[in-house]
Amino acid sequence: MIRGLSLLSLLxxxxxxxxxxxxxDADGVAMVVTDRIWTRFLFVFIGYFAMREGPxxxxxxxxxxxxxxxxxxxxxxxITVMHETGERGWGMxxxxxxxxxxxxRSVDIVITQGAEKGESPLTRLAVxxxxxxxxxxLWETLALYFxxxxxxxxxxxxxxxxxxxxxxxxxxDFIQTMQGILAGYVLGCTAGVLVAILVDRFPFLKRGLxxxxxxxxxxxxxxxxxxxxMWFGFDWQSKAAVVVVMxxxxxxxxxxxxxxxxxxxERDLMKTYAASxxxxxxxxxxxxxxxxxxxxxxxxxxxALIGGIVAEFFGTPIVGMGFRINTEVxxxxxxxxxxxxxxxxxxxxxxxxxxxxIERRVTFWHASYRQGAA
Length: 374
Description:
Elements: H1 2-21, H2 31-52, H3 61-64, H4 66-85, H5 90-117, H6 121-145, H7 156-165, H8 167-201, H9 203-217, H10 221-232, H11 236-259, H12 264-272, H13 277-311, H14 321-330, H15 334-362, H16 367-373
Helix pairs in contact: 1-2, 1-5, 2-4, 4-5, 4-6, 5-6, 7-15, 8-9, 8-11, 8-13, 8-14, 9-11, 10-11, 11-13, 13-15, 14-15
């Protein structure tokens, strides 16, 4: 059923694509560009049926990527035509729909190949990449087709252009913001782990601190940030203070839960070895808590970025990502706002990915990874 639908999406996408570009030749507009598009489509269509002649498990993995690559070229040509000719007819809308259906088919091919041959890191990465590129394509083409004003929603290419031309400004903003974020993240997470060890050692602290943590976690950041700016000034120190408040209690709660993860049998075994409380903590309980600690670190990686940027809305030197967003919104430079958001999103994703990589290296012995490997 799914393969039938995906085949229908390929045929329907191809017909819509060709029908969409037929009106372009009526006025002799963009003949060269249109010829290139027909050529790209022909490669994709022939490549599809060449692949269908045999089972998917007989096709080399790299050959599977010919279809997504061809669809990407088609998408590029559609965007080129829209920018060079200003074509906004019904045919162009059909062409956009055709590219989307072809992208759907390319995802199905990659998924089927992964199911029949076993997923590799390349095939696992393929689906989110194709999906993300398709979303960007639809964003670009539909914003152009419906003449969406730049102040409401700039196109991805406009955002990319502003990102490239404003790299020096964005670099200074990035450095200023990351100073406060990294300092607050390290201080807050380290304090959370250390206090969790004290809480585990003295139970009365657990009854007093954890309810307080729930209360502080519910405080709005827009209420904390101005106070921290008044206390610590307009430089990065106030942003670090906001980040500390945001990340401390999530790290505390996760670490406390992790210290309780060691089983009673393992603890009894340590007692039979005459291990002290400190030795049990270092040899058993902290290693068992590592997955929980890393879980808190990953959660805090996004919280710290949000807290640092929002804190800059309430007072900062004339530099910083939060300052840039706040200022450029007032100037109606929405493409610059989106460029700053892209930098923040990439930074957060890389930060999270780095922590996940370190976690995999440090906690390779954990049952979840052993089960995944099996």
